[in-house]
């Protein structure tokens, strides 16, 4: 597990979903946007869309085993799974699978899923988007807000 990769995905997802930075609040008003500190973090951060989505996933031997198609963010804003698509060749139906983010690593600029093979990915249960909410849930719907 590469804790740096997991930390980068978590930070970038938190920035996409909104800041939890403290703001001085006035009764009945809440500022929009982000603080200077969060803005600096964004500038120094990286983009999941540009750095992860659509990128190939290889095994320890450098063989391509799939492509990152999506990142699943849990209601608590933690990044939990990467959706990897296999069988993406010339319009052939792909087979999406959910892989815990902790199992991915970055080595020599490549996303690596240690021990993976195309056959092992194909043998995993197919990930179904119908079981995942399409839109985030309102903050009011969570007990901790």
TrEMBL record:
Keyword field contains Signal: yes
Signal peptide residue numbers: 1-24
Pfam family, one: PRC
Keyword tags: Signal
Domain PRC-barrel residues, every copy: 51-113
Entry annotated with the keyword Signal: yes
The protein's name in its UniProt record: PRC-barrel domain-containing protein
Species name: Candidatus Burkholderia verschuerenii
